[in-house]
TrEMBL record:
It comes from Aspergillus uvarum CBS 121591. Its main location: membrane. This is Copper acquisition factor BIM1-like domain-containing protein. It is a lipid-anchor; GPI-anchor. Pfam families: BIM1-like_dom. It comes from the Eukaryota.
């Protein structure tokens, strides 16, 4: 009986490790896609002399974590691109894989071209999320209709990259990207309640600046351009599934 108990315990431990490895294999972007798994942390800061990335024994070392590397979490441009609507579309992500994200600022940017020179085109104004814990937590957020950056009019077949930036409570940023090709709606992967939903324990807040110390004088950071985030957050509340 003791041998059987040990065997069962070993099986449970093995299954636990397997489940953790499967969890860690997922990227932060769940729709429309992602460049690849960049949830890696290896090596020590001594090996890199305090740098965020180093090279040792023929491989890269990321002592702080690969996903902290600008602009796309250490991942190169993908040759396997994802089709995304030419007039804007859905973006879903899981924000709670690392510690320090009970609150976080979210940025969604775009870079144009096959290998963008930069990711300097905001798609929505910055917004804040509130999570259930400062420890890693499960959950998904979905923005069902993210617009294109202002004054951008791509054609079907053009390439671009969508960048997600998540700024933790301590100020450091996580980066993840998906390389896209603009396409007609009929050629894009269907959006369903399985790939676009908002977990009920993750909340959203506006980001604003006070122009004075009086409670009645508050100015939005983005002035008139705040309208896109209003429509996006409203769509998140009304147009996406909540689980």
């Amino acid at each position: 009986m003791k041998a059987l108990e040990i065997s069962i315990s070993q099986c449970i431990a093995a299954l636990t490790l397997l489940s953790l490895s499967l969890v860690n294999a997922h990227s932060i972007i769940t729709y429309p896609g992602y460049r690849g798994n960049n949830l890696h942390t290896n090596g020590t800061v001594q090996q890199t002399n305090g740098l965020g990335v180093g090279w040792e024994n023929g491989s890269y070392v990321y002592p702080y974590g690969m996903q902290w590397m600008y602009p796309c979490g250490g991942m190169p441009t993908s040759t396997n691109r994802t089709k995304w609507p030419v007039n804007g579309g859905t973006i879903a992500l899981q924000p709670g894989w690392f510690q320090g994200h009970s609150t976080a600022f979210m940025y969604i940017n775009m870079g144009l071209g096959t290998v963008p020179d930069n990711m300097s085109l905001p798609m929505v104004p910055v917004f804040e999320i509130t999570g259930p814990s400062n420890n890693p937590y499960p959950g998904t957020i979905c923005l069902p209709q993210v617009p294109l950056p202002a004054d951008i009019s791509p054609k079907v077949g053009d390439n671009a990259t969508i960048q997600i930036v998540e700024v933790a409570k301590h100020g450091a940023s996580l980066y993840d990207c998906v390389d896209i090709t603009f396409a007609d709606d009929d050629d894009v992967a269907e959006v369903t309640k399985d790939n676009c939903f908002n977990s009920s324990d993750i909340g959203f807040k506006y980001v604003f600046a006070s122009s004075s110390l009086t409670a009645t004088s508050v100015a939005p950071l983005h002035g008139p351009s705040q309208a896109p985030i209003v429509s996006v957050l409203l769509a998140m509340a009304l147009g996406a599934w909540v689980l």
